[in-house]
Specification:
Layout lengths: L17 H5 L6 H13 L3 H18 L5 H27 L16 H9 L2 H35 L1 H7 L17 H37 L2 H54 L6 H29 L8 H10 L4 E7 L6 H21 L3 E9 L2 E8 L12 H9 L5 E5 L6 E8 L3
Parallel strand pairs: 1-2
Antiparallel strand pairs: 2-3, 3-5, 4-5
Helix pairs in contact: 2-4, 2-8, 3-4, 3-6, 4-6, 6-8, 7-8, 9-10, 11-12, 12-13
């Protein structure tokens, strides 16, 4: 394991890293424009939405005794959810911040169930919280960045307006920008250039606050965790697929390909020997026998390689595949498969290789015997392997059990290990079954 040495503390005389300064500005001019468009487009939406929500809530609470108020309150929450969805779509387009869509509301039959589901909609309430929190920040952002941008633009263009303005001091009607001579107008122009140069960084900072609010309030925490988990499992699946391809390539190159090359060389020597005037049948027979041996070895290695990708016994189901695996083992293994329906092929493959790895571990540490149980209960496929070894097994990074856990993760599977001192060791792998 490599460790990263701590960064030395920055001394007062240490120069500021330019990379740190660049992070204050948008990375591209296009993003600067889209962030400015976000600030302008969403500046007044929270004010409008909060006014509508407050008016609807007041009316709904007033009419609650006659039941009509509950319907108005559900409409208010639905409206808040629509405003939240509008911000989510604008964030994806203007801020390059794709947020996962909210979960669908589970509506059960019956008016009371419908009202309960609508009034307890977590996504709608999170949208209400977002609109209330963002109301002051949106107004301050719009007014602050707008004023700063117009001030910088007015200062930058003041030399042109100075030539056209005839009133005393050549002053502008806003911002108190004025100068009695053209040199002073150039000073205003330089200050405007500086303000306009800093303005994208101010907008970027403001939209950074908006991004934080969107991630915190608009996106559901459960969905955020789910997306993060899926990103991790996708990376794990891609790494595992790449490693599998490298293993297949290595096995083909070092195994079957080497045997086929040797067979071709021996057949080539036999062909040359047959082309001579004096044919040595014993030597030709030896070369052909060696080539035949190479061909059988290549077939064996190709068969083993294919079995490692997808065992042929799995075509008949997990019961036959695991029974075949147990019968070929050099220790006692009892296999029991109790399935109400056949799992998908992808899950069967995962369970098969997990069982093979666990049985291999049991052969090394399980006192020469183990029990394998595969069952499905409540839409969960469960593999349990019990051995009677000394115990002490644990999921260690880089170990065999950790590899099994990583194989289960892309299918939302979990691995649990119970291995007290003295045994027995019980390893359980669970995989959700599609409904």
């Amino acid at each position: 394991m490599t460790t990263t040495p701590p960064r030395p503390a920055r001394t007062p005389g240490h120069q500021i890293n330019l990379t740190d300064l660049r992070r204050l500005w948008p990375p591209t001019p296009r993003q600067a424009l889209t962030e400015a468009a976000w600030t302008a487009a969403t500046g007044l939406i929270p004010l409008l939405s909060v006014i509508i929500l407050l008016a609807g809530t007041t009316l709904g609470l007033a009419l609650t005794p006659i039941f009509l108020g509950l319907l108005i309150l559900t409409t208010v929450l639905k409206t808040a959810k629509l405003f939240g969805g509008l911000h989510r779509r604008l964030a994806a387009k203007l801020l390059n911040l794709p947020l996962p869509p909210p979960p669908r509301t589970d509506l059960k039959p019956g008016l009371w169930n419908w009202l309960t589901a609508r009034l307890s909609d977590r996504t709608a309430w999170r949208s209400v919280a977002y609109l209330l929190v963002r109301l002051p920040t949106a107004l301050l952002s719009l007014l602050g960045t707008g004023t700063l941008g117009f001030y910088g633009l007015a200062s930058f263009t003041y030399p042109f307006t100075w030539l056209l303005e005839t009133r005393p001091g050549h002053g502008l009607p806003v911002f108190n920008i004025q100068s009695d001579n053209w040199i002073g107008s150039l000073a205003w122009c330089i200050s405007g250039i500086l303000i306009l140069a800093v303005w994208p960084a101010v907008v970027h900072l403001v939209t950074g606050v908006d991004r934080l609010l969107l991630r915190t309030l608009v996106a559901d925490p459960g969905l955020r965790e789910r997306v993060r988990f899926l990103e991790e499992t996708r990376a794990t699946a891609l790494d595992e697929a790449a490693e599998q391809l490298r293993r297949i390539e290595r096995d083909l190159h070092d195994g079957a390909q080497a045997q086929l090359v040797a067979m071709a060389m021996k057949l080539g020597l036999a062909k040359e020997e047959l082309a001579t005037d004096v044919v040595d049948l014993d030597q030709i027979r030896t070369l052909v026998d060696a080539a035949h041996s190479n061909a059988k070895q290549a077939l064996t290695e190709l068969r083993d390689l294919a079995r490692g990708i997808h065992p042929a016994a799995l075509d008949k189901g997990l019961s036959l595949a695991l029974s075949t695996l147990a019968s070929s083992a050099d220790f006692s293994a009892t296999v029991t498969v109790e399935l109400s329906r056949r799992p998908p092929p992808s899950l069967e493959t995962i369970v098969y290789f997990a069982a093979a790895e666990l049985m291999t571990n049991a052969s090394k540490h399980g006192a020469g015997r183990c029990t394998v149980l595969v069952e499905d209960r409540e839409d969960v496929l469960r593999l349990t392997v019990i051995d009677h070894g000394a115990g002490g097994a644990a999921v260690i990074p880089g170990g065999g059990l950790a590899g099994i856990a990583e194989r289960l993760r892309p299918a939302d599977g979990e691995l649990s290990v119970s291995s007290p001192a003295g045994g027995p060791t019980v390893v359980t792998a669970t995989l959700p079954l599609p409904r």
